[in-house]
# Entry
Amino acid sequence: MDALREFREISLGSRLNRMSDVMMKETQKVYTYYGIDFDPYLFPAFKIISLKNKTTNTEIRELLNVSQPAITQTLHKLLKKELININSDEIDKRKKIISLSDKGEKLLIKMIPIWNVIHETVEKLTTFPSENLVGHLSQLEDAFSEKSMSERVISNMKSSEHSEITIISFDEKYTEDFYNLNIEWLETFFYVESHDKVVLSNAKSYIIDKGGHIFFAKDGEHIVGTVALIKIEDGIFELSKMAVSPAFRGKKIGQKLMQHCISFSKEQNYTKLILYSNRKLENAIYIYEKYGFKEIPMEKDSPYERSNIKMELPLDS
Amino acid sequence: MDALREFREISLGSRLNRMSDVMMKETQKVYTYYGIDFDPYLFPAFKIISLKNKTTNTEIRELLNVSQPAITQTLHKLLKKELININSDEIDKRKKIISLSDKGEKLLIKMIPIWNVIHETVEKLTTFPSENLVGHLSQLEDAFSEKSMSERVISNMKSSEHSEITIISFDEKYTEDFYNLNIEWLETFFYVESHDKVVLSNAKSYIIDKGGHIFFAKDGEHIVGTVALIKIEDGIFELSKMAVSPAFRGKKIGQKLMQHCISFSKEQNYTKLILYSNRKLENAIYIYEKYGFKEIPMEKDSPYERSNIKMELPLDS
DNA sequence: TATATTTACATAAGTACTTATATAAACAAC
DNA sequence: GTTGTTTATATAAGTACTTATGTAAATATA
# Structure
């Protein structure tokens, strides 16, 4: 017997509140299980700060539609946990500029895969056709009483840890994934130009039809990474458009894609791979070197504005 | 821009909380508009007390799945508003017996039609096919931002006040309404015997097929009241099974049903209507007298245990 | 029958929000 | 260029929950 269920729409407010409490508490259990000092209610603000890089109290408030003191309080708690930096704006001294601290960045990396699994878990439990909202709520409650949300998330985490990443070839149905992964990567490290959008949304005509290749890293049903081999001339290809989903970074997916490109190129008897990168991406360049790429001089009229290093890998073996 | 919407399932907990807050606040506005001193968060406990007649702290807790101190606190607030009585149980002195006070009963009568409209309003806004829970939530949010929940409820209240009650004849599709309305009535004023359930769930064979009639009061699409004329002998019928939905009491629906029965019987040239009632139902007896019924002696072997008064209305006119 | 355990409810303190209000800087108006 | 208004954030107090714990009666156990 559950009165809030019986009352249906008339007690929806109380029921949403109860459901919210359950989800918050269960998410807390997941963080505790993974030894993460973070509270679920901090998530929306923290997530926005990580996405925006630099933001303000007011901007967060507008995005979340909650009261301004709620944001001030949340920011103070994030500051106490040393997850953010709060600095006064030089120009407008009323404003406080909020950004992730180093500790915050590190915690973010740890939490992203957990958030990803939470998202997938809840998505799976709430995605089914229903004629009304209370029906959806009831099914979610039933699912959680059968096996709690935290248990579900933790067991899904375990299977996602063991899941194999497979590399597959281009298919038009993945055009959107190719676009999203690359745009996300560009937004994170550089800025997106309109030319990027044109190329990325027409991958087939710009890359495949010109003799190039695109590969995807697939985790279960999810496309989590991509890379392209763009044909420069016969036997010479540019390794480009490598991007990995933020939620899956740290799983060596980039290295798997790289290894696949090299093996593939050798099979095809290609003679050389080249790539353009930027010295600020130290980790990436370290990986390139690990796979045998060597720095060569940049041409004066480099095709990429954001690149300041060119590397090559001869494939004579 | 609404970040909680963009984050979808990952921020579902925070979003449910925000939605809950909105609904609670909007419901508060409705109560304030109608000059009712009541808080939305008190609803679940108050509703249970009104349904159960007598209950306890623990029983409410079990029905609502919240913490026990939450119930204790809610009950104290209801007591402070003088809406309930709290008495110690004579047998088990740990227990407190909770029941509605007279003031509570009066407030209940005022709130029932409002609850009814809130239910209908929210039901209408949340009943549509959707593939996932967040889709339902988004649509509800969109609806509320277009026109707030309180505004919707208040304008629906106004149109429901003006809505006409129509009387219709029996149709098998209303068998369940006939059953529910009568059972609710019996539970409120007497107790339900298994024989009642048999008769009420087989209205057609027990009443219609034996030459009787059943009428329903209809408000829009809702069946809100019923009455039966049971054939005793040619031209003599017993007026019985009159019941009105709690949400619609005070709208003279009983009187409309009564008037319809009398007009119908005259049209059919019936000679007499009789009825059995109980002296404790003072209001009902007052109405019967108003429509011309006069008390006559009960037969020794009365067909109803719960009746202690018999009345008749000659229809010679 | 004395003692331990369980049950029913109350109290205390904490939490994550809320509204109302304060403070100080920026901007607008005359 | 002073003054009033707006904007950005902080503080204070209240609320409706929570967990942890207390108290007293009922029940089980030895």
User: Anything to note?
Assistant: Residues 165-314 of chain B form a domain with the Aminopeptidase fold (CATH 3.40.630.30).
